[in-house]
Write a structure and sequence with these properties.
Structural class: mainly alpha
Shape: globular
Helix content: 55-70%
Number of helices: 6
Radius of gyration: 21 Å
Order of helices and strands: HHHHHEEEH
CATH topology of the largest domain: Serine Threonine Protein Phosphatase 5, Tetratricopeptide repeat
Largest sheet: 3 strands, antiparallel
Number of strands: 3
Length: 155
């Protein structure tokens, strides 16, 4: 009887410990994604290249970002705009879908953006301060770009 009781107590404790571990891991995973200098620097250079019309150089900068931060919505949005400009709508949609996967983990607002006439908004630059309240949400920009690209594909 004592063994059975000890076994049940140990089983209950193991289940409670597993639930606590799962809850703590889930909380860590849902935390906002910090963007360090190794992300901000190529994003900013890419933005400057896009604004200057140097798309090949911009593409390299944004690809550098997604090697480190695959879901980065700024880099993926900007790569989508370049792909759309290169007449690769499916590639562009792929970048936009990747950008939306974890966009909620990026609290940074859009500081500046450049939009192609009749095309996607690109050269999206995040505010350095995650608490910035002045710019538009990157999720809104990406959602608008998905809508524009989908409408364009229907034509």
């Amino acid at each position: 009887m004592v063994r059975m009781r000890n076994w049940m107590v140990c089983s209950i404790l193991a289940v409670v410990a597993a639930m606590c571990l799962f809850a703590s891991v889930s909380a860590v995973v849902a935390q906002p994604q910090p963007m360090t200098e190794d992300i901000f620097t190529p994003l900013n250079r890419g933005y400057d290249f896009m604004a200057a019309g140097k798309y090949d150089l911009a593409k390299k900068e944004f690809e550098t970002v997604i090697k480190t931060d695959r879901y980065n919505p700024y880099a993926n949005n900007n790569l989508a705009a370049i792909a759309e400009r290169e007449n690769q709508p499916q590639v562009a949609l792929g970048y936009l879908k990747t950008a939306m996967e974890k966009v909620a983990q990026y609290p940074y607002r859009v500081a500046k953006q450049v939009c192609f006439t009749g095309g996607l908004c690109t050269a999206v630059k995040p505010e350095k301060d995650a608490a910035g309240k002045t710019g538009e949400s990157i999720a809104a920009v990406i959602g608008d770009n998905i809508k524009k690209l989908s409408e364009k594909a229907k034509k």
